[in-house]
Amino acid sequence: MNPYSGLLFFYLLALLLLPAVVLGLLGKSLKTYGLIFSVLMLALVFGEGGQLSALIAFYLWEGAVFLAYRRWQKKLPLWLVVPLALLPLALVKMGEVWSPFAAFRLLGISYMTFRAVEVLLNLHNETIQTLSFFQWSSFLLFFPSVPSGPIDRCRRFLSDLERKITPEEYIDLLRRGVWKLTGGAFSAIVLGGLIWQYWLAPLPDRGFLPTLSYLYGYTLFLFFNFAGSSSMAIGTGYLLDIRVPENFRHPFLSVDMKDFWARWHISLSTWLRDYVYTRFVTDSLKRRRFQNPRTASYLGYLLTMMTMGVWHGLAPHYLLYGAYHSTLLCLNEALDLHWKPFKKWKRKGFGQVCCVLVTFHLFAFGLLIFSGRLF
Q1: DSSP structure string for 47-113
Q2: Cβ-defined contacts of 5-10 (< 8 Å, 24+)
Q3: What are 359-369's pLDDT values in tens digits?
Q4: Do residues 111 and 148 lie in contact, with contact meaning Cβ atoms separated by under 8 Å?
Q5: Dihedrals φ, ψ of 183, to 5°?
Q6: Which one of 5, 128, 210, 346 is CB 3.0 to 4.6 Å from 122, fit for a cystine?
Q7: Residue 249 carries which DSSP code?
């Protein structure tokens, strides 16, 4: 049973959301039922897919790492616990390209792993002082965003989890949630499905014109499918009194690649910005690793986007996709710094239109690399 697709899934989703709606309309806390809902939905989806035992093993492993670090935080170095938290994800990614590890597979492990790592980083930074195992489980296993995000932040999630809500506030959330679910289903299932069935599926595998057509079709398909899935996750979260963050903000109106990554898969790009790019650049400047401070920024883009590529998988086209976007971001920064007309073009008029079109095509070509069809 694929999440957010098929009548059976939506029937079960509606059935298990009904108690949440009743509790919300009565002004009752949803934090306990939210975890119950997530566990039940995960058991149904992962059980039918034959991955329930893998999910349980992942949960127990990440729980052990969390509890150990929470208890012995001053004794356990961060460089040890973060790789331990990343180990299940590494095994799954290796299994995608290396047959000896093929037994390791788990839907949504990338999203859950980043949540687990973020908790550890927050504990290390002391931006989270106390976190119960119940709160940690609610955050890690929150079903709506397990399959395909968005990647929520722990402190923001906890503020929703522990907040008291009035019936009037919940009615507004209910209205917005149903709208998000409906719009997301139309985008992912109807529009995405039509593009796949009548545009992409009939295309020949080879040839310049079919590949060019695939470039545009795949870009639109991925947008409608991914944005729609994110919208349905957000809508489901609203019904559970969790304000899951938005993941897309008109990305095809971006004027450059920096602007694009502030609009596309926002939860992933900002997570990587905060926990990879900013940490690397700040530490590099503090330690004076490079004579030119801009070197740290360029290498930060390389590290960040290569991390994004590996996050998708270890196949060559994913790694090349990360390298491609790191190059674009470095070029973007160089143009911002050293070529004044570039900033003027992005502001208004014909120049802005050109920048939007160029940015769209640069990203679309990147998705062609990402799809693996280019090779």
Answers
A1: HHTT-HHHHHHHHHHHHHHHHHHHHSTTTS-HHHHHHHHHHHHHHHHHHTT-GGGTT---TTHHHHH
A2: 5/188, 5/189, 9/45, 10/185
A3: 999 999 999 99
A4: yes
A5: -65, -40
A6: 128
A7: S
The tens digit of pLDDT for each residue in 10-36 reads: 999 999 999 999 999 999 999 999 999
186-220 per-position pLDDT tens digit? 999 999 999 999 999 999 988 999 999 999 999 99
Q: Sort 96 into a burial class: Cβ within 10 Å, 0-12 / 13-18 / 19+.
A: middle
Reply yes or no on whether 361 is catalytic: no
| Residue 322 near residue 306 (C-beta atoms within 8 A) | yes
| Domain spans of the chain, in order of start | 7-161, 167-239, 251-371
Query: How far apart are the C-alpha atoms of 95 and 59, rounded to whole Å?
Result: 19
The model's pTM? 0.94
Task: Point out the catalytic residue in the list 312, 325, 338, 361.
Answer: 312
Q: Measured between alpha carbons, how far is 223 from 246 in angstroms, rounded to an integer?
A: 14
- Are 52 and 64 within 8 A, CB to CB? no
Note the pLDDT of residue 224. 98
Cα 115 to chain centroid, rounded: 10
How far is residue 288 CA from its own chain's centroid?
32
